[in-house]
Amino acid sequence: MDSLYNGEFSFSNNTSKQDFELLTKALDASLSGIIITDNRQPDNPIIYCNKAFEDITGYHRSEIIGHNCRFLQKDDRDQTARHTLRDAIDNGTNAVVDIRNYKKDGTLFWNELYMSPIKDGDNQVNYFIGVQNDVSRRKKAEDEVKSNHAKMEQRIQERTKDLRENEEYLASIVQTVRESLIVLSPDLKVLSVNDHFINTFKVTREETEGKKLYDLGNGQWNIPELQELLEQILPTNNPVTDFEVAHDFPHIGKKLMLLNAHRIELEGQYKDRILIAIEDITDRRAIEQRKDDFLSIASHELKTPLTTIKGYVQIINRLIKNYDDEKLRESVGKTSLYVERLNNLIGELLDVSRIQSGMIELHKAPFDFDRMINETVASIQHGSGTHEIIITGQTGVQFNGDESHITQVVTNLLSNAIKYSPDHKKIGVHLSVLSGFIKVAVTDHGVGIAKDEQAKVFDRFYRVRDVQQKFPGMGIGLFICASIVSNHNGTLWVESEPGKGSTFSFTLPLTSNYPSKNGGDNGR
């Protein structure tokens, strides 16, 4: 072997043995595996390999010389890189490939092969030199990157598909919701509406989307109070709840609409949007009004004959005082009792009718609040032979309010406490004055009320599921109590636990016009 010439190896008879040994030592010192094949021989056999090649492949030199390089691929022959190498050998050109090779023990390794032809003076390819490096770690890293990239692509595709499906799913829900929906931008411009809105108000999307809410139709939503509520949604995040709009709408006439608005709690392009749900409650309110009218008429019509019956029963009671017939007196007594119950029920129905029509009247005057409580408790205690009512605390104030109505509230709460605690004989009534409010708390140790039903017990005609069969009633007493307390600008609420009893409390605001009996300032 002699010197490198024009970047290629060539041999001559003048090559000294010393130069050959130096070149061999240099090749053996290389960290890359190096082989030389003789292209003049059949099957282009390996005629030289350095020490690094032996280390890379695990084969001894004696097992390498004379073999074609393909022996390193074993049975893994169907590789694109092999075709690239074959073309380079046939054409006497350079080639760079990554190819799968196998060590003597069968371990796979990736070989980065640089192959170049060695030509003689006549430009004939006599030899090929191959420089090889084990790049298994690099290929593993590349495969991991490709794998991770593929997984990421798959996840992105799956995520995109999920988002598209979710968007379609949500859109289908929005379109099938039986309420009109409007999505507003932060400046209250209509971004989108659902089909129900279009159909309900008989408008087109062109007439709606992109317009200010207050410019729609004939200005039906341009209500200062509604505008104030909507403009407070973004800075305070307080929703608009059950806002009623009665209006003569274009195309559909006079309607009563119920609005609920909420801020959309999302990020990105949907951040700070407002969703308005509009429900047409015209027919529902008309039905409720007819029910209330029927209730009022029926109650009044029943009141007159019942008053007559009550009078006759009282006459009969006086006439039979001297009779010795115990069964007759007992029967008349029961009749009188049930007539009184019916009279109270009709009275409550009339109260409900007045409340619903807004005709409940308050006759306010100052009265001794503690005396009213004591007299009411005494009256209930006299009629109950089963329970003991214990009063604690006092207010010491003259309260300006409707004494008869507040007495009705206390009576109802005490009657309920007795009714719903048949196995516990003590009822507590606590009075106090707190920061300008009278507070009354009625506590029993009875059946209690489940958490999810506590807010509903003040609804008209609502009755707790667990007591409907065991305890009679129509579910209007607490509705009346809540209305009376509310008309005094007070609050009525309940705290309860099933099986452990309930505490019904109400507060009433004091006024500075009526000083307390002990000369105080009514708790202010």
Describe this structure in words.
Residues 95-147 form the PAC domain. The protein is α+β, with helices and mostly antiparallel strands. It has a five-stranded antiparallel sheet with strand order 4-3-7-6-5, sandwiched between helices. Helices cover 40% and strands 24% of the residues. Strand 18 and strand 19 form a beta hairpin. Helix 9 packs antiparallel against helix 10 (326-357) and helix 11 runs parallel beside helix 12 (403-419). It has 13 helices and 19 strands. It has four domains: 4-134, 2-Layer Sandwich (Beta-Lactamase); 177-280, 2-Layer Sandwich (Beta-Lactamase), CATH 3.30.450; 287-357, Signal transduction histidine kinase, dimerisation/phosphotransfer (DHp) domain (Helix Hairpins); 365-509, Heat Shock Protein 90 (2-Layer Sandwich).
Give short descriptive properties of this protein.
524 residues; alpha+beta; Beta-Lactamase; Helix Hairpins; 4 domains; 13 helices; 40% helix; elongated
| Helix content range | 25-40%
Please tell me the overall pLDDT: 81
What is the CATH homologous superfamily assignment of the largest domain?
Answer: Histidine kinase-like ATPase, C-terminal domain
Q: What is the molecular shape?
A: elongated
User: What name is given to the CATH topology of the largest domain?
Assistant: Heat Shock Protein 90
Q: How large, in whole angstroms, is the Cα Rg?
A: 48 Å
| Low-confidence sequence ranges | 1-14, 512-524
CATH architecture of the largest domain: 2-Layer Sandwich
* First and last CA, distance: 115 Å
Biggest sheet, in brief?
Answer: 5 strands, antiparallel
GO cellular component, one term: membrane
Domain Histidine kinase: 297-512
GO molecular function: ATP binding; phosphorelay response regulator activity; phosphorelay sensor kinase activity; protein kinase activator activity
InterPro entries: BphY/WalK/GraS-like, HATPase_C_sf, HATPase_dom, His_kinase_dom, HisK_dim/P_dom, HisK_dim/P_sf, PAC, PAS
